[in-house]
Amino acid sequence: MISVASRTRFRKRNAGEGAVIEVTTKAERVWIERLPLAADRPVLGFALTTLLILAAFALRWVVDPYLPGGFPFVTFFPAVILASALFGVRMGAYAGIAGGLLAWYYFVEPKMTFVLLPGTWVALAFYALVVVTDIVIIHWMQRANAKLARERELSRVLADTRELLFRELQHRVSNNLQVAAGLITLQKRRITDADARAALDEASRRLALIGRISRQLYDAGGATRRMREFLEPLCHDVIEASGRTGIRCEVMVGDDATLSPDAAIPLALIVAESMANAIEHGFADRETGVIEVELSREGGERLRIEVRDDGRGLPEGFDIDGAGSLGLSIARTLAAQLSGKFELVAGRGTTARLLLPA
């Protein structure tokens, strides 16, 4: 198992019947992005490159009796590649020149001389071509890698800034809604008509509730959320906003589902209105009560969200179509926007049921 904290990146590529999975961890990226090493310490880079050249020379000296003719530079190519990759293009060039001179003097016929025979010209030209090609390719890759690292850091900074601005916007919107709810409450004090005061109470409550839950409705990246992690804090906020300390809410999710950002506000308002109706009407004559919010699936086609209370239930002959409740009208309108259906069912208490496409 690879933890999320390691920021592991996967790339899967089909290859016939099999697949190739490339895994690059953050630690590997950081190490690669540090190349070339010792860029600000040339003396150290020169010393380590010299050790690579001497190691290549020693290895070539040891295997010389076992190699056929025509391979004087064979052990110096890896030294050039390592020096270029680890310490940069200058050290790669130094390794190429020093290795070429050592190989020419000790392993090219006639040995222990710098005589230029026709065959020597060809061998040296081939060696120079390979060395220059290796150095140029490695240098180009390191420049591209450095540019990629800068772009990645810029993207990270922009993402952090976007998330910060998003959170700040959420905070300000929430505060503004709370202020608007407070202003409506203040305005209510000047009104004597009971129906008008009740309407302002409802408007203030809804604005305050949206303000309380708006900070958790959206993700800065627009990602979907699980229904359980959405419903639990929502129910807590509704109970807290009601000021009824004796009301308890239980959230039951048998088969969790994802919630798209566009559906968050309508669904939050429907559940909040159902709970508010249960608190206001179902528990009007009592201080305690239990509200159950359950999410389940009906086959594979529909989601069902039920808000059940153990209150006094619906009045005799209640008809949701003829009810004049603004809260019920809002719930039914929002359910239609979600291509769903909202209904009230009598039973032990009252059940508000929302059916949505899965």
UniProtKB/TrEMBL annotation:
GO-annotated biological processes: phosphorelay signal transduction system
Catalysed reactions, as listed in the record: ATP + protein L-histidine = ADP + protein N-phospho-L-histidine
The EC number(s) this enzyme carries: 2.7.13.3
Membrane topology summary: Multi-pass membrane protein
Histidine kinase domain mapped to chain residues: 168-358
UniProt KW keywords: ATP-binding, Kinase, Membrane, Nucleotide-binding, Phosphoprotein, Transferase, Transmembrane, Transmembrane helix, Two-component regulatory system
CC terms in the record's Gene Ontology section: membrane
Designated name of the protein: histidine kinase
UniProt organism field: Sphingomonas spermidinifaciens
